Amino acid sequence: MAPPRDTNDTTNDIDRVREPIVSPYMPKYPDPMSNVSKFKIIESTLREGEQFANAFFDTAKKVEIAKALDAMGVDYLELTSPAASEQSYNDCTTISNLGLKAKILTHTRCHMDDARLAIETGVDGVDVVIGTSSYLREFSHGKDMDYITQKAVEVITYIKSQGKEVRFSTEDSFRSDLVDLLSIYKAVDKIGVDRVGIADTVGCANPRQVYELVRTLRSVVNCDIECHFHNDTGCAIANAYAALEAGATHIDTSVLGIGERNGITPLGGLLARMYTADKAYVKNKYDLTKIRDVENIVADAVDVTVPFNNYITGYCAFTHKAGIHAKAILNNPSTYEILDPTDFNQTRYVSIGHRLTGWNAVKNRIEQLKLDLTDEDAKQVTQKIKELADIRPLSLENVDVLLRQYHSAKESSNHLSILETVVSPDQLT
């Protein structure tokens, strides 16, 4: 953290430290169990995302999405089970043969038939799942924990024998009995599973519960830990961060968070959160400038628009409006931005055509237009903008017209009368 600035310091403003301070309340020493600076992303748009209400991806679209995510640098791509349909099988095969840098996974039931189909497609790994909560054991598959453990060992052993990576996950983990969970995780860890998975299938968990469960699991298994969080109650990103703090190694995401019901941890949102924790790690590992492109591809494919307040790419994400905010942003963007828009190939925008505007923001626009006006001129025009904006907000073009008219009139000392003449935003065309 930068030291307090000495009021007698003669250092030029341009030399001032401009890196954002994330928080003075961050831990002074990192938790030795934490993987906040060492995590991997399992991108599940082509599996979980297919469960989104509007989703239908043909093969060409799946290939386009897979290539876009691979270009971003995600570690894994997870695809729909080949047992789901003939086309799902063919798509697994097609994407497995693209030669992408990301490892290709498919997500299957804990069943030997599914495992054999998965191996046939040529994927790099298989994500095996079975429900363990009392709800799912009674109302879904109807199996007890002894059967589940036996079947898990059988399927995992087969997949490992084929030289493939394998993850075993319980479904509805946070409504499952802890003793049951730890027992089955220890059993699969003993036979060499690559990862065990925790799934908040109904989005009921909170960060404290996540931290405690992952920390407990970390103490009983040696393998990696993957976490899958649904967003029904708005905790998916916070839960993912808490999981990494507790020792999880892999997080499942989807583009724009699409998935079953309200979806899962959004890729862009997770990267925004992790950027604030370890910017160098995130920037060096993932191409953050490609987030907007992949989101636009997926949004178009599922017929939705990117939300106005979307992490990083929402059109308001880097828009500043209040006068006090605008002044500080113009002096040092870190005052009101924890993310640097240039790292994401985004642009900062200071809105000035409204009643909350401040003269510093208007002065900045004057400088952008290279108009020869003083601070007092900026204050005069700002007051007029406020008056007009009480009628309706002004577009940037409206503001520019007013500034240019004022500038031209100043040459004949008629600038103040110009302000008196303009009484409606409709005159600024």
TrEMBL record:
Q: Which GO terms describe its molecular function?
A: homocitrate synthase activity; metal ion binding
Q: Which SUPFAM superfamilies match?
A: Aldolase
Q: Which InterPro entries match?
A: 2-IPM_HCS-like (IPR050073), AIPM/Hcit_synth_CS (IPR002034), Aldolase_TIM (IPR013785), DRE_TIM_HCS_fun_bact (IPR048253), Homocitrate_synth (IPR011872), LeuA/HCS_post-cat (IPR054691), PYR_CT (IPR000891)
Q: Which UniProt keywords apply?
A: Amino-acid biosynthesis, Lysine biosynthesis, Magnesium, Manganese, Metal-binding, Transferase
The catalysed reaction is: acetyl-CoA + 2-oxoglutarate + H2O = (2R)-homocitrate + CoA + H(+)
What GO CC terms are in its UniProt record? Answer: mitochondrion
- Per UniProt, the enzyme's principal EC class comes to transferase
Q: Which residues form the Pyruvate carboxyltransferase domain?
A: 39-292
Which cofactor(s) does the record list?
Answer: Mn(2+); Mg(2+)
CDD domains of this UniProt entry? DRE_TIM_HCS (cd07948)
Any single Pfam family the record assigns to this protein: HMGL-like
Q: Name one GO biological process term.
A: lysine biosynthetic process via aminoadipic acid
The pathway that the record names for this protein is:
Amino-acid biosynthesis; L-lysine biosynthesis via AAA pathway; L-alpha-aminoadipate from 2-oxoglutarate: step 1/5
Identify the NCBIfam families for this entry. LysS_fung_arch
Which protein, by its recorded name, is this?
Answer: homocitrate synthase
